[in-house]
């Protein structure tokens, strides 16, 4: 599957739209609602927004606020949902912002994302293509920003699910985020589903993001094909919202197999659905 660095102006605009969507979603929360649990282990709705603020602040070259000496100090490395160094940094930002009231957090979110819009608008093509350390390895800065769009889009779903509100899960932001959701599926096919050489699997997503993702296994490696090259060994059909939540580790397949249909090798299809998660 070919993957080019996203176009700078278009992706910058999508990021701005994504931040606006998050701000609108939480704009009317009262203080009690801010502290309601999100679908993410250990995080409230407040914490989800604080995490986005922390990452975008870090990209602006900022460091977390100092610890409030009047609060008990938490060793974030001991928290069960903190599994790597990126999660440690995320958790430090969240922990340091927790004393803020929800309204102040939202104001800070607006300030930080406005600064990020300005920073992205000021970038030139050389900076956009520059190799940059990211959660998916060293990639062009523009690819990293697509990861940021994916992350923020997923967190919009987390917030909506936590609030109990429906949002539009289709459109350009979702289509772009789905590129990050599908790129690594070759690993899930081999490592998780244990698909044998020669296997072909088609994921048929029925909407609101509508697409077919064709997967192949050869030489012990899985890959995402630009188009099907053989009849599929298995076809898995589900809506894109469920796929995103399974892939993002927000839901477990065991609770949702009734919402998935299978054709061909059902056992292979079920193994893949049960091993879609690659992030949480």
Please sum up the structure shown.
By secondary structure, this protein is of the alpha+beta class. The chain contains eleven helices and seven strands.
Give structural notes.
With 280 residues, the chain is α+β, with helices and mostly antiparallel strands. The protein folds into two domains: 170 residues, dinb family like domain (Four Helix Bundle (Hemerythrin (Met), subunit A)), CATH 1.20.120.450; 91 residues, SCP2 sterol-binding domain (Nonspecific Lipid-transfer Protein, Chain A), CATH 3.30.1050. Helices cover 49% and strands 14% of the residues. The chain contains eleven helices and seven strands. A five-stranded mixed beta sheet has the order 5-4-3-6-7. It has a two-stranded antiparallel sheet with strand order 1-2. Helix 1 runs antiparallel to helix 5. The model has no long low-confidence stretch (mean pLDDT 93). Pfam families: MDMPI_C, MDMPI_N.
- Global structural class: alpha+beta
Q: What is the CATH homologous superfamily assignment of the largest domain? A: dinb family like domain
Number of helix segments?
A: 11
Stretches with pLDDT under 50, minimum 5 residues? none
Q: What is the H/E string?
A: HHHHHHEEHHHEEEEHEH
The number of domains: 2
User: In the CATH hierarchy, what is the class of the largest domain?
Assistant: Mainly Alpha
Shape: globular
Gyration radius, rounded: 20 Å
The share of residues in helices is 40-55%
Q: What name does CATH use for the topology of the largest domain? A: Four Helix Bundle (Hemerythrin (Met), subunit A)
The first-to-last residue Cα distance is 25 Å
What's the arrangement of strands in the largest beta sheet? Answer: 5-4-3-6-7
Biggest sheet details? 5 strands, mixed
């Amino acid at each position: 599957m070919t993957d080019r660095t996203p176009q700078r102006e278009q992706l910058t605009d999508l990021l701005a739209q994504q931040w606006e969507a998050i701000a609108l979603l939480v704009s009317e929360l009262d203080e009690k609602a801010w502290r309601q649990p999100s679908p993410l282990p250990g995080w409230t709705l407040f914490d989800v927004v604080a995490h986005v603020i922390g990452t975008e602040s870090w990209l602006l070259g900022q460091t977390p606020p100092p610890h409030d000496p009047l609060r008990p100090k938490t060793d974030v490395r001991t928290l069960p949902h903190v599994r790597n160094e990126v999660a440690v940094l995320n958790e430090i930002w969240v922990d340091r912002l927790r004393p803020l009231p929800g309204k102040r957090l939202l104001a800070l979110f607006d300030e930080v994302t406005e600064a990020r819009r300005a920073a992205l608008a000021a970038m030139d093509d050389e900076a956009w293509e520059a190799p940059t350390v990211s959660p998916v390895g060293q990639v062009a800065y523009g690819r990293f920003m697509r990861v940021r769009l994916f992350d923020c889009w997923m967190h919009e779903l987390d917030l909506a699910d936590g609030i109990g509100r429906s949002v539009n899960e289709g459109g350009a932001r979702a289509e772009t985020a789905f590129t990050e959701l599908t790129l690594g599926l070759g690993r899930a096919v081999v490592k998780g589903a244990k698909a044998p050489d020669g296997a072909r699997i088609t994921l048929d997503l029925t909407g609101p993001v509508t697409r077919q993702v064709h997967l192949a296994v050869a030489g012990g490696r899985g890959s995402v094909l630009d188009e099907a090259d053989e009849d599929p060994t298995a076809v898995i059909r589900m809506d894109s919202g469920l796929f995103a939540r399974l892939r993002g580790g927000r839901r477990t397949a065991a609770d949702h197999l009734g919402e998935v249909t299978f054709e061909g090798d059902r056992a292979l299809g079920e193994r893949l659905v049960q091993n879609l998660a690659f992030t949480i």
